[in-house]
Specification:
By secondary structure, the chain is an alpha/beta fold. The protein is built from 10 helices and 8 strands. The chain has a single domain, classed as Rossmann fold, CATH 3.40.50.1820. The protein starts with a strand and ends with a helix. Bound molecules: the ligand C=C(O[C@H]1C=C[C@H](C(=O)CCC(=O)O)[C@@H](C(=O)O)[C@@H]1O)C(=O)O.
């Protein structure tokens, strides 16, 4: 289905019955990344899958200021309102986790429980954010100059995704296909508008979260395990799961184990 929020046409798919669960994919991804999870648990949850702005079948505006975290969070609020959903659980992966946390900080009244997979609350200092904005700007420039295929060739090879090299070929090809289905405009806009250096820092807000939060990181993803360790100290009601045998994209690398821990957390009243 298509839902329009502030002139952006979002591609949204609903599947399953039960507790509403909003699923937010990562940078260069699409809602297709959740197919394994949805297939296994559609009898327990009403899955709301969204292609984020600039991704998948959702619009990719040319004005990168339309991609800000705050505007993307407002879009998610508008989508939930359009669907008549007053409160939902959220599961966000990486960029989708940063957006899920941003949504939860801005619109806490809509959040039942929050699962953050390999995600951060942003960067602590303006100096870090400035440096990151410049590196994301250079990546965006590369995408615009050389195209998506060149960028994905580079992106899938960064150290953060090292563990994905040992995935079965069919899984690697599926990830590649999803990444290649995105546009230069959308990926560049996402980096420029809602990159890690462009979003607000939520570090000082973590202590205010009142709903249950589960952080999930892969044991081989040192960077995001370090971030999760810091986050857990600041969040009142917070579990942190370190998943053996996984790197950054846990829901792809160890999908069965990931689905089990998420489902246990979401049904643990
Ligand atoms: C490389 C870093 O940051 C990027 C890595 C992960 C985020 C993401 O969504 C990747 C999803 C994927 O390709 O599977 C991405 C983001 O949050 O936008 C970051 O730019 C890093 O070292 O922080």
């Amino acid at each position: 289905m298509k839902i329009i929020s502030n002139s952006v046409e979002y591609h949204v798919e609903l599947k399953g019955e039960g507790k509403p669960l909003l699923l937010l994919h990562g940078f260069t991804g699409s809602l297709e990344t959740w197919s394994s999870l949805v297939q296994k648990y559609e009898s327990r949850y009403q899955f709301i899958m969204v292609d984020l702005i600039g991704h998948g079948k959702t619009d990719s505006p040319h004005d990168y200021t339309r991609y800000t975290t705050e505007k993307a969070a407002e879009d998610l609020k508008n989508i939930l309102e359009t669907l008549g959903i007053k409160k939902a659980c959220l599961l966000g992966y990486s960029l989708g986790g940063r957006l899920a946390l941003s949504f939860a900080c801005i619109y806490p009244e809509y959040v039942d429980r929050l699962v953050l997979e390999s995600a951060s609350p942003g960067l602590l200092t303006e100096k870090e954010r400035k440096i990151r904005r410049e590196s994301d700007r250079q990546l965006a420039e590369r995408i615009t100059r050389n195209g998506v295929a060149d960028f994905i060739e580079y992106w899938q090879g960064i150290p953060l995704f090292k563990t994905q090299q040992s995935l079965p070929e069919d899984k690697r090809q599926e990830m590649r296909r999803q990444r290649l289905s995105n546009s230069e405009t959308g990926l560049a806009g996402s980096l420029l508008g809602m990159g890690t250096g462009s979003q607000p820092s939520w570090w000082d807000h973590l202590q205010n979260l009142q709903f249950p939060v589960m952080l999930v990181t892969g044991e081989f993803d040192e960077k995001f395990c370090t971030i999760a360790r810091q986050m857990q100290k600041l969040i009142n009601n917070c579990e942190w799961k370190i998943i053996k045998g996984a790197g950054h994209a846990i829901h792809v690398e160890v999908d069965e184990k990931f689905g089990k821990i998420v489902s246990e957390f979401l049904t643990n009243d």
